[in-house]
Write a structure and sequence with these properties.
The structure is a single chain. This protein is of the alpha+beta class. The chain has 2 domains: about 70 residues, 2-Layer Sandwich (Hypothetical Cytosolic Protein, Chain: A); about 100 residues, 60s Ribosomal Protein L30, Chain: A (2-Layer Sandwich). Helix content is about 45%, strand content about 20%. Helix 3 runs antiparallel to helix 7.
Length: about 190
């Protein structure tokens, strides 16, 4: 590795080396097993955000071995829930920052107009948006080349993250916030 190369870590599931920021970092602290999306200190283990790697790590007990045997038995669903909570917590923080920077909007009309004007970088939909309305926004996003993310947030949670009433759609106008949210969502481990 050269001096300018990004740091790499080995996934305890598949054994492949990947860039550190592409992996989930796990640690065993006072609160039990914790997942970190933004690094962290102390002893840790790295895992690809994939179902196969998670299952391999649990089957071979490499996650427990890397973090210490005091963890006891681990279940895939428990780990997926921990990742989901960490992802949604970070996305909420990013949405709150974007809102305060006036780079996020949540009114249907404003989001639709900004999308049609070509000024959106990311379109976010709540998980409980109606299928008809969701398809309309997805088609509009596709026409404009704007990535669309269906969040695991309910309309109430999306509204709360944006500091207002329940919302089914939000738009991000800043490329940095859009990239941060999209990268964070990539950490979600698909269900089996």
């Amino acid at each position: 590795m050269g001096s300018g190369s990004p740091p790499e870590r080995t996934c305890v599931g598949c054994g492949k080396k990947r860039r550190k920021e592409e992996l989930l970092r796990w640690s065993h602290g006072l609160a039990g097993l914790e997942v970190h999306l933004d690094g962290g200190g102390g002893r840790g283990a790295y895992l690809c955000p994939s179902r196969d790697c998670l299952e391999q790590a649990l089957k071979r007990r490499t996650l427990q071995h890397a973090l210490g045997e005091g963890l006891g038995p681990l279940k895939a669903e428990t780990l997926r829930v921990a990742v989901r909570q960490a992802v949604f917590s970070k996305v909420k923080r990013l949405l709150g920052l974007a809102r305060r920077a006036r780079k996020a909007m949540a009114s249907h009309e404003v989001v639709a107009k900004t999308l049609e004007a070509g000024r959106l970088c990311l379109l976010l939909l709540s998980r409980d948006i109606s299928s008809r309305e969701g398809e309309r926004f997805i088609r509009a996003g596709d026409r404009r080349g704007v990535p669309v993310v269906i969040l695991g947030f309910s309309r109430a949670e999306l509204g709360e993250a944006l500091g207002g009433p329940p919302r089914v759609v939000a738009g991000i106008t800043d490329a940095g916030f859009a990239e941060g949210i999209a990268k964070t969502m990539a950490y979600l481990i698909p269900e089996g």
